[in-house]
Amino acid sequence: MSLHSVTARAARRSSATFVALAALIPVLTLAACDAATPTESSTPRTVAAASALASSATVRGAERLVYETLHDVEGSELFVECADGGVSESVVLAGKIFERFTVVLDPASGEHSVYHTMPVGLAGVGATSGEEFRVSWRDHGVSSQTPMSTAKSFRYTLKFVGLTSGRSFGVVAQGHFTLNANGEVTVSRENLVAECEG
User: Fold this and answer.
1) What is the pTM of this model?
2) Which of 65, 82, 151, 190 has a 20 to 30 Å separation from 90 between CA atoms?
């Protein structure tokens, strides 16, 4: 089986997954408006094109695809809206975010995926104070879709810690969603927590 046919099959099957996920995005956005959220300025970023690094078919007919991308966030400016209504200092980022997306397509029309990111040389400088910040930025998500149901879980963590002052601020968002065969949401849990200290 060629990489092109595997990629085409993944694209067809993924469209249903992403349609379901797209329906959940407004829910996440509304929840984010009611709680603390990280906010990014309009500074442009460089995004490397995703490439299929590996594709393999197993004896039982399952196919596995791995996509990896490196995002350059140099010059991006982020801040956190704290739970008490305050706003943290804006932090100008330097470094990159590595992203890996793995999809397994099984012979029973199931699609199972894992998504995660990790920082690569990521640091920040306070836009007002000039203080250096240690930056932690991680995303992790899993999805399992069969003709009968879809389940998705995610966790997003962003945290800044001042190297001189020790002050810290960040946000953690996590959730779990389940859809039945009719596309109806049967489970919807999400949590968004901001921490601002110092």
Assistant:
1) 0.67
2) 190
